[in-house]
Every structure is written in structure tokens, then in C-alpha cells.
Amino acid sequence: MKLFTHNMLTSKMIRNVQVGYPLKLCASEVKITPTDFRPGFLSKVIPKIDWTVLVEAVNSVGNTEPLPPALAEDYDKNDDFLRKAHHALFEIEIEVITGEMECPETGRKFPIQNGVPNMLVNEDEV
């Protein structure tokens, strides 16, 4: 699972959960997979993500290259910033052998196995 995917996931489908975001991430293994750097595409993706949540996720998986705490004003023209964002969003892949994401409101845990989060809920939870 890429951190880009994590940035979009919520547990709002659980009964009585108002926000369910961001899910707390606990990863046991992280893999870096180089991908082509496409600054034009990245400039269009960045406004759609929650930067603070991405920074927290990068910190939680133990990435050695931290992200700037705030979104740069000129991010679309800042090559260094775009390369760091690209690395965080598209090159860091979480491969969880035994891990989970946790709803911040209910504590409900969603397992991640073989890089795939299981966001299915029980009938009594909806």
C-alpha cells in the first residue's frame, strides 16, 4: 500500500464515526520502489492530499528522509519539494506482514496483509 492510498482512507463507514480520519498507521516493513518522477502530475495530486497526514504517515513508517512540515507555497515550481513529495507518495510502499490501521475515534483496527488493507466492516458496525 502506498502512502498516497493511506492518505485517502477513512473509517467513516462505521456507525457513530463522525470523521474517522486519519487512520493511525502501524507498519512492520517498508519498501522503497523507485518510480518515474512526473512533476506535472504531482503538482495536480498535491492539492488533493492532506499534507499534515502525509507527514505523520512518513514519520510513522520510519522514512529516513523527512518531509517539510508545511506545504511549500511554490510547490509546483520547487523541484526539491516535488521530489520529496514524489518519494513519499509514490515510492514508499508499505509491505505489512502483520500490521494495521486504527480508527482514531473507535479504536477499530483494520489489518493490512501483503500490502492490502482490509477495510471491510461487520454488519453490526454499519
Automatic annotation (TrEMBL):
<protein>
    <recommendedName>
        <fullName>Multifunctional methyltransferase subunit TRM112-like protein</fullName>
    </recommendedName>
</protein>
<dbReference type="Pfam" id="PF03966">
    <property type="entry name" value="Trm112p"/>
</dbReference>
<dbReference type="GO" id="GO:0030488">
    <property type="term" value="P:tRNA methylation"/>
</dbReference>
<dbReference type="InterPro" id="IPR039127">
    <property type="entry name" value="Trm112"/>
</dbReference>
<comment type="similarity">
    <text>Belongs to the TRM112 family.</text>
</comment>
<dbReference type="GO" id="GO:0046982">
    <property type="term" value="F:protein heterodimerization activity"/>
</dbReference>
<dbReference type="GO" id="GO:0070476">
    <property type="term" value="P:rRNA (guanine-N7)-methylation"/>
</dbReference>
<dbReference type="InterPro" id="IPR005651">
    <property type="entry name" value="Trm112-like"/>
</dbReference>
